[in-house]
Write a structure and sequence with these properties.
Layout: H1 28-52, H2 55-72, H3 80-91, H4 97-106, H5 108-113, E1 128-137, E2 140-151, E3 154-163, E4 170-171, E5 176-178, H6 181-190, H7 193-203
Antiparallel strand pairs: 1-2, 2-3, 3-4, 3-5
Helix pairs in contact: 2-3
Length: 205
């Protein structure tokens, strides 16, 4: 998901300040929750790897895993899958916690839409910018920003238009409503330049 850093000054609470687990930012409970989310992310990457490995490659991989785990004293003969998962985590190029945390705090919605299963979707939230498009209208450069928010049990979206170099902006009403965040984003990306200009004209006084 592409997010322009300039778009993080959106309406309401910035995405990197949202915490739907009920803990205050920077508290020990919040830090523990973040570590839990990181561990869940790593587990999911391991499961995804094991899902795409061809069946005939599993046995040779397990032999490597058993040798690796035995040398380190972590082999579990009664639970070969545990050994295999440990080895997969070792060989995967997973980001360290600090790198993951930076991405999590910068692109929170990407982690929400990935469905990691550890961050409950909020019933409601303030609009957050997740994508933008450039366009030209009457020889002036504009930027159309997709802002999304959780409303009830669906994702809703609108477009914020801002002329380059100008302070003010114009917003459409709610024009997107999808169960899936990625579907909503794909619809915005599929708009042609004339589509976007039509929406822009509808917002101008």
């Amino acid at each position: 998901m592409t997010v322009d850093p300039e778009l993080l000054d959106t309406v309401g609470t910035p995405v990197d300040r949202l915490d739907h687990g009920g803990s205050s930012i920077g508290s020990p409970a919040h830090s523990a929750a973040l570590k839990g989310r990181y561990e869940e992310y790593c587990r999911q990457q391991v499961f995804l790897l094991l899902e795409i490995i061809p069946r005939e490659a599993v046995r040779p991989l397990y032999r490597r895993a058993r040798t690796w785990a035995t040398e380190r004293g972590v082999h579990e003969p009664e639970d070969p899958m545990s050994t295999l998962r440990l080895f997969c985590r070792e060989i995967l190029p997973l980001p360290p916690f600090d790198a993951w945390l930076l991405d999590y705090e910068t692109h929170r919605l990407a982690h929400v839409s990935a469905g990691l299963g550890v961050l409950p979707l909020p019933e409601s939230m303030e609009p957050v910018a997740v994508e933008f498009r450039r366009l030209e209208h009457e020889a002036e450069a504009w930027r159309g920003t997709l802002e999304v928010y959780r409303g009830g049990d669906v994702w809703r979206g609108l477009i914020r238009f801002q002329r380059d170099g100008a302070d003010g902006h114009f917003r459409t009403g709610e024009i997107f409503r999808e169960d899936n965040l990625q579907d909503l984003r794909d619809r915005f990306i599929s708009f042609t330049a004339p589509n976007l200009i039509s929406f822009l004209r509808s917002t101008l006084p």
